[in-house]
Amino acid sequence: MSEKYDVVIIGGGIIGCSIAYYLAKKKFGKIAVVEKDQYLGNGATAKCAGGIRAQFGTEINVRLSMLSERKFEVFQEETGAEVQFDQVGYLFLMTTEDHIAAFRKQFTMWQHVGHPVEWLSREQIKELVPPLFVDDVLGGTFSRKDGIGDPHQFTQGYVSAARKLGVKFLTEHEATGIRHSGDVITSVVTNKGEFETNCVVNAAGPHSRQVAGWVGIDLPVRAYKRQIVTTAPLDFISESFPMVVAMSSGLYTHKESGGLLLGWADKDTPEGCDESAHPD
């Protein structure tokens, strides 16, 4: 006989685990998280750069991200978990007039919604982050509320807090389908059995389009490879070194274990969940 849950969450990354915690906190009933991997938070969560920001291009995204930043600020107090959230800021660098014009519009919107962002000159950027080469930089935006966090610590903090509230985490349970009768969901099928439920949360990250397809929804989510590298310790990296994003190249970097983490995207990367590394 299959076990019955009020909510089944597909995906045990930071999104799925945080949803489980907040649903349990609001007493949504019996909740299960099914995760195909052996460990929770071992998919996209484990491979992300850890950036936390509210400098986005749409008002709804900014408002939601501001709420998220507040949650991260009080996370330790709320859950009891020790976590790293360094509000060292996010610095966007602009080298073209087109970037300046686009960010001027966004800057006005950020002011409207109350997200504290500074507009910096080249000289101010150099003063803020002396190691940066800024000869071609026309300006930048910087928010001290943004920063970087440890994805693993936050995920495990949510898991620990959710378990105390009765959430069941089922690792090595790969969801393979959703049964439904008309518009009513009846169960989630996994490689280790079926779980009765009338409510499913799709938190499958890059696989969320596939999950949505099980109930006839074409979710406009595409997966593309992104790559990051880390350096050895560097003597010019201070504790206050922010997340820096170069708009012209898409390169981003932040402090990591005394050195730097650097990431970028190849615009010609084909769609797909390819997790192999390319040294080039």
Fold and architecture overview:
By secondary structure, the protein is α/β, with parallel strands linked by helices. The protein has 2 domains: 3-48 and 152-213, 3-Layer(bba) Sandwich (FAD/NAD(P)-binding domain), CATH 3.50.50.60; 87-146 and 223-264, D-Amino Acid Oxidase, Chain A, domain 2, CATH 3.30.9. The chain is built from 8 helices and 18 strands. Strands 7-8-6-16-17-18-15 form a 7-stranded mixed beta sheet. Strand 12 and strand 13 form a beta hairpin. The longest helix is centred in the middle third of the chain and has 17 residues, at 97-113. It is elongated, with a radius of gyration of 21 Å.
Quick structural summary:
This protein has eight helices and 18 strands. By secondary structure, the protein is of the alpha/beta class.
Set out the fold topology.
Blueprint: E1 3-4, E2 7-10, H1 14-25, E3 31-35, H2 44-47, E4 51-52, H3 59-73, H4 75-79, E5 85-86, E6 90-94, H5 97-113, E7 118-120, H6 122-128, E8 139-143, E9 147-149, H7 151-164, E10 168-171, E11 175-181, E12 184-190, E13 193-196, E14 200-202, H8 208-213, E15 227-230, E16 243-246, E17 252-256, E18 259-264
Parallel strand pairs: 1-13, 2-3, 2-14, 3-10, 6-16
Antiparallel strand pairs: 4-9, 5-9, 6-8, 7-8, 11-12, 12-13, 15-18, 16-17, 17-18
Helix pairs in contact: 1-7
